[in-house]
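Worked example 2:
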Amino acid sequence: MAKYTILTPAGASFTTAGGGYEYEMEALEGLDAEIVECPATEEGFIAAAPTADAVYAKGMKFTAAMINALTKCRHIALGTVGVDYVDVAAATAKGIPVTNCPDTFIEEVADHAMMLLLATHRRCIEQDRMVREGRWAEGRPQLLKIPRLMGQTLGFIGFGRVARATARRAKAFGLHMKAYDPYVEELTLSALGVEPATLSEVLSTSDFVSMHLPDTPETRGFLKERHFRQMKPNAIFITTGRGPTVNEAALIKALEEKWIAGAGLDVFEVEPTRPDNPLHRMPHVILSPHNASASSRFDPARKRRVGQELALTLQGKWPMSCVNPTVLEKSGLRRWQPYAMERGPNS
């Protein structure tokens, strides 16, 4: 029996029951640790919880009851940016560090955000359909009504890692940029050519509004009907953040009643989207299935990061990306490098 047991639900997302942990085990080699699968149910996890020295959280909700059943766990590791499927408050109360992968997929998501902006602005999907349906002559007249991209304003709600990477891309297209984020220093924005602004200023003056807030109790349902009413009639709404931060009914109403001109959406309030979702039928809305982070390096990169974080805590060291850092001072783990974080999993 191994010295350290890392408990994880079987058959969870991005892996299959009974194996597939080679990437995670690279950093754990030599530590006498093993990843042990348990049933992917609350009851199954709770039954196995006392054996866990650490938890690899994936594929299901991790409730307070599950976390409270852990008796010797020193770490809950996530292979994602978002942490909304784990009760972080319960882990904090239990004194267990929770880690995520906040910087592993940033470039891919920023690429996707910029793709949605460009595709919605230039009516990419609609233009494609015109060609396929023999409506060739309609293409140019549509675009003759659209202003050039250069000189328009891109507003960010939340200015974490993905927003910053998107800003670097948008600068090359000549966009004026502003951002609302009360947790980010003004100098961080100005260094990227982004103007600090209030939420109202971002909404009322931007031609593109890009949503980047994490899903937390404070941000859930953050954008409501009154916010969409503040936006310009020509504005396009982009989100690659978290679906629950936007009241989707309000967004649908804004599009149907033409308070805004269009949207590019990678995330939704309910996923997968239901077949009767009105967004499916809207011509000037581009949808993608919450896959902005995906690329050929996605699985190897995030799995290796999970293994690296687990290896650190099992050796008694601080992890790299703790979302509840207050527990580290009381955890007995050793600080092994300068530790800094911005504000958690801001995407």
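The CA atoms of residues 270 and 286 lie 17 Å apart. Confidence is low (pLDDT under 50) at residues 338-347.
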